[in-house]
Amino acid sequence: MTPETFAAAVAGRLIVSCQAGEGHPLRDTAALTRMARAAEGGGAAAIRCGGVGGVPDVAAVAAAVDVPVIGLTKDGTGGVFITPTVAAARAVAAAGAHVVAADATFRPRPDGRPVAATAEAVHDAGALFMADVSSLDEGVAAAKAGADAVATTLAGHTLPGPPPDGPDLDLVRALRDALPDALIVAEGRYHTPELAAAALEAGATCVVVGTAITDPQWIASRFAAALGPP
Ligand SMILES: CC(=O)N[C@H](C=O)[C@@H](O)[C@H](O)[C@H](O)COP(=O)(O)O
């Protein structure tokens, strides 16, 4: 898939992230694959998937849907954990991901390799590289390092303390100003259709929504909380 083909497939559209962390009741490749097919049926223009030990998820989803697949692995939950090494990026591409998403923050990477090494490995494998960043400077650096798409996935995740409740629309605006021709992905805490639409207005090419669509545990907890203490 070329960058142009991917951009044409996702421009102005919704991408759904189908993931479940360790210990989650949906942490099952078959369950997540069904979730991906349901999301595709609902209008997802691409599926983002993978996670801890997520290579089998990427392979299964890629075989089950007709839309592009953005794959990743996760290793832990602190520091650089999304497709943290060049070897992990190669494994995700080999599993059939059209696009490999990886951490492109300025934090130290476990294998000590630069982001450009991930970009090169992914391109050598015939896939595209989506850079997950937390700031404008990281996004600009990732684009220079060869990213085909820059995603706001890690906004709010590199500072001490928990991320805020809402998405970082300011980062979307700043990235669009700095990178007028780039494929900018709004991702992280887009919990309502209105917020997803606001991301496009802020300049995003497309929007990734995960939790609010694919985590029934999170959705149920919001309804339960609205009804008051048990
Ligand atoms: C920070 C991190 O680990 N983000 C992960 C990246 O793949 C996923 O856990 C998120 O679900 C995804 O980014 C979509 O975001 P949200 O679930 O907020 O719609």
TrEMBL record:
Give the species this sequence originates from: Actinomadura darangshiensis
The keyword Isomerase is assigned to this record: yes
**What molecular function terms (GO) are annotated for this protein?**
N-acylglucosamine-6-phosphate 2-epimerase activity
Q: What is this protein called?
A: N-acylglucosamine-6-phosphate 2-epimerase
The protein's UniProt keywords, in alphabetical order, are:
Carbohydrate metabolism, Isomerase
Q: Which domain of life is it from?
A: Bacteria
SUPFAM superfamilies on file: Ribulose-phoshate binding barrel (SSF51366)
GO BP term, example: N-acetylneuraminate catabolic process
